[in-house]
Amino acid sequence: MQTALSEYESARLSALCQYQILDTAPEAVFDDLTALAATLCETPIAFISLLDEQRQWFKSKVGIVVTELPRDVAFCSHTISQSETLIVPDTLADERFVTNPLVVGEPYIRFYAGTPLIFSNGYRLGTLCVVDFVARELSSKQIESLQSLGRQVVAQFELRQKLLQAECIAQVLWKSEAALCESEERFRTMANSAPVLIWVDDSAGKSIFYNQTWLKFTGRSLDQEVGEGWRQNVHPEDRQHLANSHTTAFKSRVAYTTEYRLRRFDGFYRWFLETGVPRFLPDGTFAGYTGSCVDITERKAAEQDSQLLQTVTHAIVTSQDFHSALQIALQKVCEATQWEFGEAWVPNLERTAMECSPAWYSKSEHLREFRQQSQSFLFKPGFGIPGRVWSTKQTEWHQDVSLESHTIYLRSHLALAAGLKATLGVPILANDEVVTVLVFYMSESRPEDRRLIDLIAASTELGLFIQRKQAEEEVRKSLAREQELNRFKSNFIANISHELRTPLTSVLGLSTVLLQQHFGTLNEQQEQYLSLIYESGDHLLNLINDLLDLAKIEGGKQELNKTVVDIAALCQSALEMVSVRAIAKKQNLSLILPVAVESIVADQQRVLQILLNYLSNAVKFTLDGGSITLSSRLANGLELEAETLPVEISESSGSQHGVDHLFLVLSISDTGIGIPQEKQPILFQRFQQIDGASDYQYNGSGLGLALSKQLAELHGGRVSFSSTLGIGSTFSVWFPLFLKDNLASESP
Fold first, then answer.
1. For residues 667 and 574, what is the distance between their CA atoms, to the nearest angstrom?
2. Strand-pair partners of 566
3. What is the maximum span of the chain, computed from C-alpha positions, in angstroms?
4. What's the pTM?
5. Contact between 472 and 519 (Cβ < 8 Å)
6. Which residues of 377-412 are buried (b: 16+ CB within 10 A; e: fewer)?
7. Backbone phi, then psi, for 589, in 5-degree steps?
């Protein structure tokens, strides 16, 4: 219960403060009501009091001089605790007040009647009371009159508060109106002095203000612009786009930006970036938009120039050849400008004159004859527009070339017949060298356009791209010639090899028959000579076979006969084929078992050929008593990248696999003489050997490793090596393992 009373008292005191009555000056209206209460109740004392936390304060009083009393002795503390009028006929007979200082001392109160002042918020904030020095009673009419006067007191307090609130509101409105006027005047002053165009729209989207910068730009009055009049200044092509932007913004009531062209007072259009920001009143009501417009004409021109150059450059990069690149450059420039005809002139092979490129562009079919007649012209340095631009490296502009003399413009009669007038010649430079001269024409006179001249002339990237395209074309021609030579070489090797194999086969056959002594016994010297003939013929036949294999591979004619290959059996067979030579040098041949996989799908004969080439080299370059080991393992593409790979002759050499791709790696390691670091880059190149011509110690064609590399790559694989001088070498061949077409399985 005490908590509920405390909460009520706290709220009551808060409400009392809101009325702002305490400690205010006396007011006649309240004094009149107090006097009337004393008269009606026939008492010497009457008062209107309000009770705060510590005291009883008298707003109006009759018969007393004090302005306040402590709340703990105030009779009214009891009155505000109830809704009914409190009447104490005799204080000495009421135990609540018999010892009260106001009863036993001055002013010796014997009678008290008080009615609580209940305000519209329901709180009892004070009392209207009458007091006498003698015990007595009030009639029912006096009690009703006292209660009625109490209600009047409350009504006056309520009215007083409303008047105060109205006064405050009036002051706020006056201040707001003054501030608004000052703000509007300040806004107009700032807006009119701003270097950008500023406007204001109302909530319906109608324009209500334009600053002086706007009006000076358009050359129109404010009356002409407000409402919808300003739209007449917008470029016809941009009106719908701008209207859509405004409609969307007004619906969503958010800030926006848009770009459009606005007509200047002289009739020229300028590009502007418009930014609109919504306005809201203090109560949140949408009031319209305030916007600004910034001139971005130069920026738009730069963007258009950049876009033109990017378009031209991209078209050149993707073109097929040099003259196609020029064709595209002419077309793009003409399409982006008003030029009707464009042609390109390039230095001839001797660089003695400018000749007409096959590249040209025309918007009009009737200029084709002018083009055909121009093809026969050659311009030496300093003559005609192409020749002068070539030699000076400067642009040249003619407002009406048909009026120029024949010495200035050598084709003036052709231009006159074709109806061409304005002409622009532009050098395209790359590394300070004129790559080409572009010449443009139109059928009307035109003053010099420095922006277009500077745009094309300053574009060094354009020249570099055209030059690169020219270089690419030269490279293509060179590659085509090289391919033709390679085809000729391959055909020659194939033909000559076939011509040599026939007599060699006879030499080998006859020498074999003689060595078998079917026609009589041979003496030691005869047998030695025949053995030399056979060995030399056999070596020459192997060389011819290698040349034929290389020729087939390079010509794309070598086909693989893929079957399931038993890896262990193949490795054992390869070792057996070189065992005779190894035994002669007391070398130790070994195969590490088990092999990494049981089988793969490959051309068994070609895999054996690779292993024999590796093993033959190992036997050849390993000293007597050395060791040669054939091993196998599984590895991924990441491990392949860490290997020492042959230096590639072209970008197309080798195969590409991901780092996770799986390979079978067959390796031949030896304890041979090793390979010097400076000789390693030439390995796997045709006709290259590690011993030079001056100290030729080991016989061989220099084709074995090159052929091994080609055969490995035909299988989609690679070759690798590692070698340390004086310690030995390891040569490996990597065969990719494919799940779909490879039957390989890991060995147990």
1. 13
2. 599
3. 181
4. 0.38
5. no
6. bebeeebbbbbbbbbeeebbbbeebbebeeeebbbb
7. -100, 135
Strand partners, 635: 663
Q: Are 630 and 668 in contact (CB under 8 A)?
A: yes
Query: What are the tokens at 580?
Result: 């005779």
For residue 108, give the nearest of 116, 100, 120 by alpha carbon. Answer: 100
**pLDDT 10s digits, 2-30:** 455 578 888 899 888 888 888 989 999 89
Three-state secondary structure call for residue 601: strand
Q: Which residue has the tokens 């014997």?
A: 110
Which segments within 85-225 are labelled E, that is strand? 86-88, 111-118, 124-132, 197-201, 207-210
Question: Which tokens is 174 given?
Answer: 């006056």
User: Partners of 127 in the beta sheet?
Assistant: 49, 116
Contact predicate 217/205, CB 8 Å:
no
Residue 278 to residue 258: CA distance in whole angstroms: 15
b/e burial code for range 293-312 (CB count within 10 A of at least 16 → b): bebbeeebeeeebeebbebb
Radius of gyration of the chain (CA): 56
Distance CA 726, CA 671 (A): 8
Distance of CA 287 to the CA centre of its chain: 38
As a whole number of angstroms, the distance between CA 376 and CA 176 comes to: 85
Alpha-helical segments (H) within 555-636: 567-584, 604-621
The pLDDT tens digits for 438-489 are 898 888 887 776 766 666 655 545 656 666 666 666 666 677 776 676 666 6
State the amino acid at position 32 in one-letter form. Answer: D
**Both tokens of residue 283?**
């109560």
Neighbours of 87 (CB within 10 A): 16
